[in-house]
Each structure stands twice: as structure tokens, then as C-alpha cells.
């Protein structure tokens, strides 16, 4: 199974820009790259912060651009999104029966679960009792391996300003996931606008850069004022196999030189190991 993961598109109404960048142009470039190189993917998942201020015109701009995508798309919400505005433009977006934008589906023998971690009135995330009940019911439907997609990470990243608006009730979420932990193969996340990987309670995870602006790597305590940067945007290409999950980052704006490494010379010296052949 092949999945493309995009996060934090932060659309704004045209012709506005955001932090000196055009989210629409960056999304267009990402989709052009995706369509040229990864149109064989089974799914595109966008893990929230679709629109920076949750405005209808911003979602309309996103909808217009999604018309160029030829693979199935799953859209999720983040702290910047507005569920009502999103449903105005995308009436068929996921609904768990309680008004939350979450759902699950079976793909290639895996249960893919898309969790709504938005908490009204704050940029932090939360997963209330109703959502936890839905999650428990979905996990109980089968014994397939699980891939989780969320906006907010349920662990500390080490970037203090982002950790201040992380998942507020991670322990309660873990109590629901714990009985099924051996089935959960990976968690895919956004929110922090950085490439980060590791494991949480033994479950591997990956976060990827945002599509517009980024958050610089600043591990020294710096309070709650979030720093921003214009580091390169990226999406990820996920390959899910029976014994492995491989996550590649695609820096779709990168135009740097490409060249063959075989026989390439550095300061006039040819690259050659000259080691004896391996045996066995």
C-alpha cells in the first residue's frame, strides 16, 4: 500500500499570503509533484490545519485545487480548522455520528483510522469521552493491523512552544489504545511543522514539515511564543509492506542539481573502494 501524507496546508482566502508565502502556490506545486511521481498511490491523507483561519473561501480554494488530484483523498481537521465551515464546502467529509471529523476504512488489510483532535477554544488538542468511545468501538470491529492518523502528537516534541499546544489528554487516549497496541503499526502526525520520528509507548511515529511555513528546531526552552521559519516544505510518501513501513520525505520545491555518484570525482580523485569482494 502506498500513501501520500500532506499536512498543515494553512489555506487563506485569495489573494492573501501567510507569513510572506502563498499557501495556494505551494499546494499547487505539491500536487503537481504528486501527480507526476506518485499518482499510483492508494490514498492522499491531509492531517489538518487545512485553512489558517477556518474560513469558507479558504476551503473553497482548497476544493478547487483538489480537482487535480486523481487518487482518493482523506481530509482531517487541526486546531486552525472550523468544522462547520469545512462541511459547508465539503459536505461529504468524514463524520463519526457525533459531529467530529473522523472515520476509519480498510485498505490492503489494514484499518486506517483518522482521529479528530481539535479542541474548541484552544490550539491544543483533546480527545473527549465521545471520541474515545468511538475509537474503542472502531478498534473492536476487527483484528487488522492499524495505521493511525492524527493532527496533534500525544507526546512532547521538545519544542516548548509547540508542546504547550500539544495533546492535553494523551493519557486518556493511551488507555483506549493500549489494549490494541500490538496491532498499531505506526502513527502519522502533523501540527509541529517539523520532520520528527520516534516511538510512543513502543509505537513508531512520524511527523512531517508543513506545506507552507515551518517551526525551526529550537530545543532550548523558549516559552509559548512559537518561532516560524521558511525552511523547505515537504510531503511524505509511505510504503506499507507486510514486514515494514517506510516513510520518505519529498522536498517538492527542491531544484538542486542531480548527478550520478558512480565514477563521480571529488577534487580529481575517483571514488573507488577497492575492497575485496564479499563472501558467503
UniProtKB/TrEMBL annotation:
InterPro entries, sorted: Calcineurin-like_PHP (IPR004843), CNP_phosphodiesterase-III (IPR050884), GpdQ/CpdA-like (IPR026575), Metallo-depent_PP-like (IPR029052)
Record-linked Pfam families: Metallophos (PF00149)
Annotated GO MF terms: cyclic-nucleotide phosphodiesterase activity; metal ion binding
Domain Calcineurin-like phosphoesterase: 1-195
UniProt keyword list: Hydrolase, Iron, Metal-binding
PANTHER family tied to this protein: CYCLIC NUCLEOTIDE PHOSPHODIESTERASE CBUA0032-RELATED, PHOSPHOHYDROLASE
Family statement: Belongs to the cyclic nucleotide phosphodiesterase class-III family.
Protein known as: 3',5'-cyclic AMP phosphodiesterase CpdA
Originating species: Rhizobium metallidurans
Organism phylogeny: Bacteria, Pseudomonadati, Pseudomonadota, Alphaproteobacteria, Hyphomicrobiales
Amino acid at each position: 500500500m502506498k500513501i501520500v501524507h500532506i499536512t498543515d496546508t494553512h489555506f487563506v482566502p485569495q489573494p492573501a499570503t501567510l507569513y510572506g508565502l502563498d499557501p495556494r502556490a505551494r499546494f499547487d506545486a505539491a500536487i503537481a509533484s504528486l501527480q507526476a511521481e506518485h499518482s499510483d498511490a492508494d490514498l492522499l491523507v491531509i492531517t489538518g490545519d487545512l485553512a489558517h483561519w477556518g474560513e469558507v473561501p479558504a476551503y473553497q480554494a482548497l476544493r478547487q485545487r483538489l480537482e487535480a488530484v486523481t487518487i482518493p483523498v482523506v481530509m482531517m481537521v487541526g486546531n486552525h480548522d472550523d468544522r462547520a465551515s469545512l462541511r459547508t464546502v465539503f459536505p461529504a467529509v468524514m463524520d463519526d455520528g457525533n459531529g467530529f471529523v473522523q472515520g476509519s476504512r480498510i485498505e490492503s488489510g489494514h484499518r486506517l483510522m483518522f482521529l479528530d483532535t481539535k479542541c474548541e477554544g484552544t490550539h491544543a488538542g483533546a480527545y473527549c469521552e465521545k471520541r474515545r468511545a468511538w475509537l474503542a468501538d472502531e478498534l473492536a470491529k476487527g483484528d487488522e493491523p492499524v495505521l493511525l492518523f492524527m493532527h496533534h502528537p500525544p507526546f512532547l516534541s521538545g519544542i516548548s512552544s509547540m508542546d504547550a499546544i500539544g495533546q492535553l489528554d494523551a493519557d486518556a487516549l493511551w488507555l483506549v489504545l493500549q489494549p490494541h497496541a500490538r496491532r498499531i503499526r505506526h502513527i502519522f502526525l502533523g501540527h509541529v511543522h517539523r520532520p520528527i520520528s520516534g516511538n510512543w509507548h513502543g509505537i513508531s511515529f512520524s511527523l512531517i514539515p508543513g506545506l507552507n511555513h515551518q517551526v525551526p528546531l529550537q530545543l532550548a526552552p523558549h516559552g509559548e511564543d512559537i518561532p516560524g521559519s521558511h525552511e523547505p516544505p515537504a510531503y511524505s510518501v509511505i510504503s506499507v509492506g507486510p514486514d515494514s513501513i517506510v516513510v520518505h520525505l519529498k522536498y517538492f520545491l527542491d531544484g538542486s542539481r542531480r548527478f550520478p555518484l558512480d565514477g563521480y570525482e571529488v577534487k580529481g580523485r575517483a571514488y573507488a573502494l577497492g575492497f575485496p569482494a564479499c563472501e558467503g
